[in-house]
Amino acid sequence: MKRDISQLNEEDILSFLLIGQSNMAGRGYMDEVEPIINQRCLMERNGRWQLMSEPINPDRPIFYGAYRSGVGLAASFADELSRHIRARVGLIPCADGGTALYQWMPGEVLFDNCVMKTRLAMRSSHFGGILWHQGENDVGHDDRVEKHREMLDTFINALRKELCAEDLPFLIGELHTYENDDGKSRENTAKLNEEFREIASTLPYCGFVSEKGLTIQSDGVHFDAKSYREFGLRYFKEYARIVGL
Question: What is the pTM of this model?
Fold first, then answer.
């Protein structure tokens, strides 16, 4: 059964959980793209809804440091979605840079935190789905890669159960193969991406979002701001496919 969001009105909020590593939190430079200002796009702050502004997911310093919080994919996702539904769009930021999959498993702090924040947001919104991008932290560890598929299945099912939504859309972003990866890391990245595609094709209401053609910053790790904008539009297209927009 596809989620019917057509009954939501202009006063309703359709909310989305942002989880994973830094490429979900956003590391794009703020001055590289025009800001997205949309009165119908919101973000969660202290359990309340505020007008969306970047950085949406400030998990790191904003004005200094090698890896600053900045532009991410969620803003363009929300902006585009708001043009196709009557409800407003709300974002629940819980991504944390540099985290491994085992840190997101049931019983861990990151899992409990995102469940708590989502339940709080559900008091004032209709929960629409999850945007996930994670895996860079794990590709350098063969043992983690071997267990990744089983753990990700467990994670998705546990999260859906905790949020009482078996038909909850779960979007998985493709990992980029970095230029400075060694042979093993490249092999492991390819393996995880293939597993993501398999999960998206076999687990109900899951989607896979391609990063093909996107540009990586000089740090060799994070997408640039323009690519985050494009990535967000791709997440929207996959979400629209799942829910039948």
Answer: 0.94
